């Protein structure tokens, strides 16, 4: 029987049969977007979060891994790696950036990606990790298996975006990134976020 409803992109789709080696990604934003979109947690529809106020445009495909959540396990992992000022997870699905050489023009799509590393971002005391991944079978990025294989300029471009996208010229910086980690730790973060999801939503 063909289902007569659309699966919720956060709760109704798995993280992937081979997660954390290969994960499903729900893409919310693409590099050409001047509006920040995000999934409405209640309905599952993509909604306008806010217009981008300045020239900081996301340099990669951006979304989340389904059936993940950032709370105690993700926070504890951040503390274990030296984050002294983190008090909780950010209570959202785990964010992920996917590098691809293809010109994907709109979000609201699913894709498979290979995690290669990530950024341990702390946003006002909240653990808000950003996983970095590559599109499966991408002609330019698809062979990469660890963030150390990326050009330094590519990493710096991603770092600059996340360190500046919430900032206003008249306010102090709201976020910091103390750790850039590789594929092994990225997989630990994904597993921690899956446990946080199970603990909060699969009871």
TrEMBL record:
Its EC number is 3.6.1.1. Its cofactor is Mg(2+). It is an enzyme of class 3 (hydrolase). InterPro entries: Pyrophosphatase (IPR008162), Pyrophosphatase_sf (IPR036649). Pfam families: Pyrophosphatase (PF00719). GO terms for biological process: phosphate-containing compound metabolic process. One of its GO terms (cellular component) is cytoplasm. Gene3D superfamilies: Inorganic pyrophosphatase (3.90.80.10). Keywords: Hydrolase, Magnesium, Metal-binding. GO terms for molecular function: inorganic diphosphate phosphatase activity; magnesium ion binding. It comes from the Bacteria. This is inorganic diphosphatase. It comes from Epilithonimonas arachidiradicis. The lineage of its organism: Bacteria, Pseudomonadati, Bacteroidota, Flavobacteriia, Flavobacteriales. The gene is ppa.
């Amino acid at each position: 029987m063909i289902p007569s409803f659309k699966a919720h992109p956060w709760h109704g789709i798995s993280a992937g049969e081979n997660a954390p080696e290969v994960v499903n990604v729900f893409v919310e934003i693409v590099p050409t977007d001047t509006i920040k979109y995000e999934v409405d947690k209640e309905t599952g529809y993509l909604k306008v979060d806010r217009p981008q106020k300045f020239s900081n445009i996301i340099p990669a495909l951006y979304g989340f891994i389904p059936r993940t959540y950032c709370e105690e396990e993700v926070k504890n992992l951040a503390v274990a790696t030296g984050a002294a000022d983190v008090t909780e997870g950010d209570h959202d699905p785990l964010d992920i950036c996917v590098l691809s050489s293809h010109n994907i023009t709109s979000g609201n799509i699913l894709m498979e990606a290979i995690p290669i590393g990530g950024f341990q971002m702390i946003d006002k005391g909240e653990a808000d990790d950003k996983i970095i991944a590559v599109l499966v079978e991408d002609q330019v990025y698809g062979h990469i298996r660890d963030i150390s294989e990326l050009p330094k300029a590519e990493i710096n471009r991603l770092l600059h975006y996340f360190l500046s996208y919430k900032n206003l010229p008249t306010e102090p910086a709201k976020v910091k990134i103390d750790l850039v980690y590789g594929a092994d730790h990225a997989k630990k973060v994904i597993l921690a976020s899956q446990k946080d999801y199970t603990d909060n939503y699969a009871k």
